[in-house]
Design a protein that fits this description.
mainly beta; 7-stranded mixed sheet
Length: about 120
């Protein structure tokens, strides 16, 4: 499966962005989808993940209450709605797909396919 992330940009603190990740190739709803981010000088971290049908989600503590992940399997797209953005959210955001995964909070090693990343910059 090929993944194409988009929607990043520059936003002021407190603002919102919606990231999209469009998939092509194999059946989209065979995959658990995750959003990761990597800030300069830091390791890549899991932000959120969503199950194949969208019935289950996981959020990192940093995302709870501010970010929402959802997917539209008919459009083969997963979204990340980010509200209340803070400068600490500045990072390159990546979407990823996993065919088999033990838990939704599994790390990046569990994911099989990755998008190219989209940069989110939050100014103070």
């Amino acid at each position: 499966v090929q993944l194409q992330a988009s929607g990043g940009g520059l936003v002021q603190a407190g603002g919102s962005l919606r990231l999209s990740c469009a998939a092509s190739g194999r059946t989209f709803d065979d995959y658990i989808m995750g959003w990761f981010r990597q800030a300069p000088g830091k390791e890549r971290e899991l932000v959120t993940a969503i199950s194949r049908r969208g019935s289950s989600t996981y959020y990192a503590d940093s995302a709870k209450g501010r970010f929402t992940v959802y997917r539209d399997n008919a459009k083969k797209t997963v979204y990340l709605q980010m509200n209340g953005l803070e400068p600490e959210d500045t990072a390159v955001y990546y979407c990823a797909a996993a065919r088999l995964i033990r838990n939704l909070n599994s790390d990046s090693n569990s994911y099989d396919y990755w998008g190219q990343g989209t940069l989110v910059t939050v100014s103070s």
